[in-house]
């Protein structure tokens, strides 16, 4: 198949942009990239798909996502963090069934695909949500998923009794750590290697030092990557201080700093933390909307980048973002650092697009197969329709994507060489059925949790 007549932002090592460009896809791989006229002359009998007026870029990669939480979109808006987590989100999640988890995963994946995300890192999927269902949802939908199953053995947050987990979410070593290994043995590499299984460790304070060390040893022995929330809120920093550490000295002490680890949020770091990150090759997932909405603070992304730390980007979960649209996340990532630094050149559009593509691929250990459009790499790409009034005019395709486009402008999505979205419509999933199931199950979860009276508008509804 030839995809022709597009503006192609390759993200290859030279960062070249092709006008009137074309891609030749053979099975699941990019076989050629060149001007449309060149490829049409070389392959005159090839089937052609016209992408005139579209901007083509590598499939977007979200390095932090909670698929279960999309079923809880809008259930905990404008609450301070303890109430948000302990009185709403954990209570709701503690009343999930495996069927709810599958419905939530399908809703999340459908939204991600329609808004251009072709690969995501699930951070902390609980056992009660049904990990098999998450894997099935990835397999059926055509998306690429790195799936972190929760690892924990302590049921509080940062050793504060006020931050107690709902009993329905509490897991032990056997269920969490050993359960993840079992799921890795069952699912890792399945669906033509679109499924990878990760350790999704709870935040320090939720995992004992011994369990962290056991997990990191297994990670090294079996090559199972790790993702973990870290230094997100001031309470995290206080926890590390209580055990005579900073965030990164603690992570180093239990073996977490590694090129196979993605640490999420990373808001409350000092200069030495950043130096340790850089030296270790550990990756960071930046989630600006979540950090802003929950009033957690702002990650020191410009300082991390200057130190050579690889930074990806993620939407986090729907209750602290309200969307899985990575294009919207990219815009905030490009803007928020300018605001606090008083420097309009801080984190430019090109840097943000790298975060959402090739940097994300590096964080997931997949840079040799995805993250850029190069011959021999997997055919994962997105075509954004730049012909509409809201996108016109544009002069730099990168700034048009980062500052103007949203998920609603996504026209075509291809993963592993297979078209999964065409003209903005899902081809691999029944969108109407997914929405109806999500609506029904979200209401049932709220009722089981006993929160019907709280999850409603603040203003009177007549």
Concise account of the structure shown:
This protein has 462 residues and is α/β, with parallel strands linked by helices. It contains 17 helices and 19 strands. Strand 1 and strand 2 form a beta hairpin.
- Please bin the fraction of helical residues: 25-40%
Q: Spans of 5+ residues with little confidence (pLDDT < 50)?
A: none
Oligomer: single chain
CATH superfamily of the largest domain: Metal-dependent hydrolases
Counting DSSP E segments of at least 2 residues, the number of strands comes to 19
Quote the average pLDDT.
97
Distance between the termini: 55 Å
Q: By helix and strand content, what is the structural category?
A: alpha/beta
Count of all domains: 2
Question: CATH topology of the largest domain, what is it called?
Answer: TIM Barrel
Protein name: Amidohydrolase-related domain-containing protein
Pfam family, one: Amidohydro_1
InterPro entries: Amidohydro-rel (IPR006680), Metal-dep_hydrolase_composite (IPR011059), Metal_Hydrolase (IPR032466), MTA/SAH_deaminase (IPR050287)
Domain Amidohydrolase-related: 55-420
């Amino acid at each position: 198949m030839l995809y022709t007549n597009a503006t192609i932002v390759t993200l290859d090592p030279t960062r070249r942009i092709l006008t009137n460009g074309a891609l030749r896809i053979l099975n699941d791989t990019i076989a050629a990239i060149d001007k449309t006229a060149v490829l049409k002359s070389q392959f005159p009998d090839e089937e052609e798909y016209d992408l005139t007026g579209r901007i083509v870029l590598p499939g977007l990669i979200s390095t932090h996502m909670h698929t279960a939480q999309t079923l809880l979109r809008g259930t905990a808006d404008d609450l301070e963090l303890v109430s948000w987590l302990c009185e709403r989100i954990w209570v709701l999640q503690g009343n999930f069934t495996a069927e709810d988890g599958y419905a939530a995963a399908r809703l999340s994946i459908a939204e991600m695909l329609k808004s251009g995300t072709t690969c995501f890192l699930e951070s902390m999927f609980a056992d009660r949500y049904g990990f098999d269902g998450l894997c099935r949802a990835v397999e059926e939908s055509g998306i690429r998923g790195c799936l972190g199953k929760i690892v924990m053995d302590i049921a509080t947050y940062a050793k504060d009794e006020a931050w107690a987990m709902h009993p329905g979410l509490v897991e032990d070593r056997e269920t969490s750590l050993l359960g993840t290994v079992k799921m890795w043995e069952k699912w890792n590499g399945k669906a033509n290697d679109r499924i990878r299984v990760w350790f999704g460790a709870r935040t320090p304070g939720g995992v004992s030092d011994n369990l962290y060390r056991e997990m990191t040893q297994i990670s090294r022995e079996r090559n199972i990557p790790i993702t973990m929330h870290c230094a997100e809120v001031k309470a995290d920093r206080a926890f590390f201080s209580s055990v005579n550490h900073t965030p990164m000295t603690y992570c180093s002490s239990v073996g977490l700093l590694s090129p196979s680890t993605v640490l999420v949020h990373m808001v409350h770091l000092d200069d030495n933390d950043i130096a340790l990150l850089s030296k270790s090759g550990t990756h960071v997932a930046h989630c600006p909307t979540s950090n802003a909405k929950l009033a957690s603070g702002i990650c020191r992304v410009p300082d991390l980048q200057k130190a050579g730390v690889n930074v990806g980007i993620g939407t986090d979960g729907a209750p602290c973002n309200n969307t899985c649209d990575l294009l919207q996340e990219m815009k905030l990532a490009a803007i928020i650092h300018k605001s606090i630094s008083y420097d309009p050149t801080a984190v430019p559009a090109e840097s943000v697009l790298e975060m959402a593509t090739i940097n994300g691929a590096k964080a997931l250990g997949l840079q040799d197969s995805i993250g850029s459009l190069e011959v021999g790499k997997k055919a994962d790409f997105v075509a954004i329709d730049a012909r509409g009034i809201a996108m016109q005019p544009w002069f730099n395709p990168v700034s048009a994507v980062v500052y103007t486009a949203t998920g609603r402008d996504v026209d075509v999505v291809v993963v592993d060489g297979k078209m999964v979205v065409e003209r903005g419509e899902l081809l691999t999933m029944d969108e109407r059925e997914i929405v109806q199931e999500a609506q029904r199950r979200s209401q049932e979860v709220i009722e089981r949790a006993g929160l019907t009276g709280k999850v409603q508008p603040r203003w009177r509804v007549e």
